[in-house]
Structure prediction request, 281 residues.
Amino acid sequence: MRPIRREEPLPQLRKALTADCRRCCGLCCAALYRARAEGFPAELPPGRPCPHLDGEYRCAIHGQLTARGLHGCTAYDCLGAGQRAAATSPVDWRRDPEEKRRLFAHFLSLTALHQMLWYLAEAASLLPARPLWEEATQLIGECWALGEESAPLDALQLEQQRARVNRLLRPAHEQTLAAAGGRPSPCQSADYSGRKFRKTVLRGRDFSMALLLGTDLSGCDLWGSSFLGADLRGADLCGADLRGSAFLTPIQLGAARGDEETLLPPFLSRPTSWGRSSGSQ
Ligand code: SF4
Ligand code: SF4
Prediction:
């Protein structure tokens, strides 16, 4: 198989985009909006801590999340925004309402910036997008620096930065598809929910922004396919070859189903919620 990306051109950044809950203080379990319908334990507005968050900022039912069907909890990944925000806080947010407001706002801003950084790291590592390397690394520096500011970015600032990032991601995505013999889908948000692609060669397919709810991609060869912004909830990735796919995120993987035969890009880990046996359930 032809390589589609350089081996970790940005190892420090990849490491910084890996969640480390031991260095955090339960931010995702308190700062975010969590809906029961999305696989969280209750309707929890932003700022309300989950009742299962214990005194040490740990999930008291961590070992039971899958059994309880809390797939929102198992799929969530802050891409390192949690520990980065927590490092700025010298006090316990539960005892200081002012600090809680500041810290949660900072976490939300960092979450958005780290999502941009994740995609930029991917664009910078993809071989077909090599002409964009300089611009990508410049934007990475900018996004990182914006997260260092003491005041969190407001919605407008984040939108402006996201628009700049998206202007680079589009050609990176298109160049990757082209290198794999594919082309951008004419249909934005194509709906493949429930489709059975089982064991099909799907090289260079544009799944960006697509709905892949419960889609059977088991055993598929997805080299050069782009999953930029795709909704993979419940998709079957058992035995799929995703090593050469582009723009996949930990949240997408955590929301899908896979097994020990699913092949992943080197910088992505197998979600702990995935089963061990191969084949569809
Ligand atoms: S915000 Fe991130 S680092 Fe913190 S507990 Fe949640 S997943 Fe872990
Ligand atoms: S159940 Fe656990 S992981 Fe899920 S929101 Fe509550 S504390 Fe966090």
The two ends are 29 Å apart (CA to CA). Residues 97-125 form the longest helix (29 residues). DSSP finds seven helices and no strands in the chain.
